[in-house]
Amino acid sequence: MISILLVHSEYSSLIPLMVYIKKIFQHSVVYEAYTLEEAGNVSKNKNVNLIFFDLDAHDEGNVTNFIQRLQQHITTDSIPIIFLTEAKEEAFYKKVNGLSGYDFIQKPIDKNMFILKLHNYSKVYTNIQLNTNVINDSIIYSETDTEGIITKVSKRFIEISGYTQEELIGKSHNIIRHPTMPNSIYKNMWETIKSGDSWTGTIKNKSKDGSIYIVKATVYPIIHTNGDIIGYASARHDITKEMMEKQRNKNILDAQYSLIIILTNGIITYINKTLFQHYNFKNLADFNMKHNSIAELFEPYDEDALMPMMPDDVPWLDYVKKHNNKNVFAYITDKDSKQHIYDVHYRGKIASNQEIVVFTDVTQLQEQTK
Fold first, then answer.
1. pTM (two decimals)
2. Which of 57, 135, 194, 295 is the right S-S partner for 9, CB 3.0 to 4.6 Å?
3. How far apart are CA 319 and CA 307, in angstroms?
């Protein structure tokens, strides 16, 4: 049986995480304390194996004094402590670095990361058998040695990769690497985790049958009590469907002859391929290098043109919104010196901070009506 002590307050971030502690560890006992004095008494009298300490639940302005009080009340050489905090205070890290068996979890707390931390500590500090059902069934989880050779995989990892456990154990983790993934991503990942930090990113993998699956991955070092990195662990969430749907929507937008613009907080973050096919821009970054606004492409033509009707102090998007029930035209000359006429309409919000504007090419229609 493992005994876990939570040092926090009644409003602590640890409270909703208690359910995961009890799910991960079989036959665990969880104690709670609200002061260092209470924590010291519990740790001495209840044979505590692991302590979670919510720093933000306590007013510890003097770091040196806090560390001294902590060492007075808790035997830190024998009990690992995991500190939870919102702020990264360099002074505190330097002071706490003298403690044995400490660790940090940065807030806001990621559920999967919290579960994996528990997993790590269950192996390093106790002989308690981990209830692996939580990880096996829900997380694409793996462990490697320091050279990236797979030492453990979850049931979910086996299912999505298409390999058997026997085919995976002892192999390099790049057995599932997709050949189109940039080397720079893995270089950054290895540099990060070798330094002792966790790494999070989106990775495209290749299963045994050649199919693609995309994951949101968190990779972190497994650290021994002596401070050495003894391996690496990774938890992944399958986001293939979301990414495929996003790509499908992008393909639909790119297939339109209309010019489609998405703005995030008023800044253009997406333009479909129409702009790049017909105008002298390689991509959105190239456009942003040359222009501050799409309105800089608009040309005066007649009384219906967009730019001449806009006061200098009114942004083009505000103008379009205000006149959305009318035909608002913009004239833009393409890379072949052909002038296009666009009917500009605001299509509303597609997210809380994202808006979409559609420029419909009505050049032929306008020419026919003249």
1. 0.45
2. 57
3. 10
The CATH class that applies to domain 132-239 reads: alpha beta
List Cβ<8 Å contacts ≥24 apart for 180-185: 180/204
Position 204 confidence tier, pLDDT thresholds 50, 70, 90: very high
**Within its chain, how far is the Cα of 303 from the centroid?**
48
Cα separation, 100 vs 122, in Å, equals 17
The CATH number of 1-128 is: 3.40.50.2300
Q: Please tell me the CATH code under which domain 256-368 is placed.
A: 3.30.450.20
> 150-183 pLDDT, tens per residue?
998 888 899 999 999 999 999 999 999 999 999 9
Quote the tokens at residue 106: 């940065």
Query: Is the distance from CB of 143 to CB of 152 less than 8 angstroms?
Result: yes
Smallest Cα–Cα separation from 215: which of 188, 184, 244, 192? 244
The CA distance from 148 to 145, in Å, is 5
Beta strands 3-7 and 29-33, pairing class: parallel
Instruction: Supply 28's token pair.
Output: 């665990």
Average pLDDT over residues 332-349: 88
